[in-house]
Specification:
about 450 residues, alpha/beta, Aspartate Aminotransferase, domain 1, Aspartate Aminotransferase, domain 2, 2 domains, 5-stranded mixed sheet, 3-stranded antiparallel sheet, binds pyridoxal-5'-phosphate
């Protein structure tokens, strides 16, 4: 078989700036060792996130030129709405400036104190918005998924037994909706099977509970279903994605992920009454329902991106290239969340650095060292981000879509292996300053 190549060529380039170890040590001290507070221009390879960092296609840039900037009834909105409806089948498509705005509106309308919202694993902004609405955000991942080394084809599935017990215990009236996040970003970017989505649909509908998808990476999830779940290998990613959406009553979506857009999102629902309340709230903070805080050109970029992401050549390359990074470091002895997901590789820093206790943030310490050593930025997904809710101490290396080439990734592999070779000398860190919520964005650290 031939090498799976990047199925695109490069038309416009951005230079990368190199810095020395001494410069990076100074920059780290200045930003309190919080990599969110670095200037992006001081980073060589930026794997902080795959969110909003995609390279757009010529097709998307061309679509942006026809953005209709009308305040109300923009043509660009209708193009986005039609594209989303064709894919998802949802009755109402409400644009928002990004995914968390869709979350805030959805939970404001649906959640009250005393409510519980289960999810396979809540993303950080999802949890924060549910808690901000006074409800409880409950993670119900598969118990087996807690072991980063266990290889399951659909390790992102929601624990169905736990869901049934929760409904029986609390009563369906206290569960305003059930969410499933595809792919399961906070638990290793693992996919969710169609069988699991079908079961969640069956259980929720039996009790009259709405079922929503957090659909940020719907296309990557669809590709895993095609590759791994019996009965889907003959279906196109589009057909699989359509089936996934057909099981749900609505979704939240960040267009900064699988829509290759630099900003944007939307909220979908089949419920007319809810849609009305959601649009009223939208007007209050986001804007009129035909633009939702976005420019007409952004709506165009999203509409084009949702079509492009379902290209099988793209998805094959995407999953293969992320797996390439994962296999090269894991096979050389760096523990990662197995098996590799689509949008990121997660190093199990707890396992890699057993001499650094949880309270000294092993994954943050590794993030700091990888930047210091090689100018690479990853992000801690562990006790800094989730506090006591953290199941593991992970360093996520998210791969921006269509941005880095294989030689960039080879450099990342080499750098990680160099750090791994002297891992016993790494030290932990402590937090010296933190805000009231979502502390990982702005807190400051001190190396020990
Ligand atoms: C990114 C993300 C969100 C939030 O979207 P934003 O556009 O960053 O506000 C919600 N859920 C998941 C799973 C995500 O990855």
């Amino acid at each position: 078989m031939h090498t799976i190549i990047e199925p695109f060529r490069i038309k416009s380039v951005e230079p990368l700036k190199k810095t020395t170890v001494q410069e990076r040590e100074r920059l780290l001290a200045q930003c309190g060792y919080n990599l969110f507070l670095l200037a992006a221009s001081d980073i060589l390879i930026d794997l902080l996130t795959d969110s909003g960092t995609s390279a757009m296609s010529t097709n998307q840039w061309a679509a942006m030129m026809r953005g209709d900037e009308s305040y109300a009834g923009s043509e660009s909105f209708y193009r986005l709405r039609d594209t989303v409806q064709k894919l998802t089948g949802f009755r109402h498509v409400i644009p928002t400036h990004q995914g968390r705005a869709a979350e805030r509106i959805l939970f404001t309308v649906m959640c009250k104190p005393g409510h519980t919202v289960p999810n396979n694993t809540h993303f950080d902004t999802t949890r924060a918005n549910i808690e901000f609405a006074g409800a409880e955000a409950l993670d119900l991942p598969l118990p087996a998924a807690a072991d980063t080394q266990v290889r399951l084809p659909f390790k992102g599935d929601l624990d169905l037994d736990a869901l049934e017990q929760l409904i029986a215990g609390r009563g369906p009236e206290r569960i305003p909706l059930v969410l499933v996040t595809v792919t399961n970003n906070s638990d290793g970017g693992q996919p969710v099977s169609m069988a699991n989505l079908e079961a969640v649909r069956r259980i929720t509908h039996q009790h009259g509970i709405p079922f929503y998808l957090d659909a940020c990476r719907f296309a990557e999830n669809a590709w895993f279903i095609r590759e791994r779940e019996p009965g889907y290998s003959h279906m196109s990613p589009r057909q699989i994605a359509m089936k996934m959406f057909s099981l749900a009553d609505g979704c939240t979506f960040s267009a900064k992920k699988d829509a290759f857009a630099n900003i944007g999102g939307f909220l979908c629902t089949n419920d007319d009454m809810l849609a009305k309340q959601e649009k009223d709230l939208l007007i209050l903070t986001e804007g009129f329902p035909t633009y939702g805080g976005l420019a007409g050109r952004d709506l165009e970029a999203i509409a084009a991106g949702i079509e492009e992401v379902l290209d099988p050549d793209y998805l094959e390359y995407r999953i293969a290239s992320t797996g390439y990074l994962g296999r090269h470091i894991a096979d050389a002895g760096v523990p990662i969340v197995e098996p590799p997901g689509a949008h990121a590789i997660y190093i199990d820093a707890g396992r890699m650095l057993p001499h650094i206790p949880r309270q000294q943030y092993p994954a943050q310490s590794l993030a700091i060292e990888l930047y210091r050593h090689a100018g690479i930025r990853g992000v801690e997904i562990g006790s800094v981000m989730f506090g006591a809710h953290a199941r593991n101490e992970l360093l996520r290396l998210a791969i921006p879509r269509r941005v880095y080439t294989q030689s960039h990734i080879d450099y990342v592999v080499e750098s990680i292996l160099e750090v791994n070779a002297r891992k016993d000398g790494l030290r932990g860190c402590e937090i010296v300053e933190e805000p009231a919520f979502l502390r990982h964005f702005t807190c400051r650290f001190r190396p020990l």
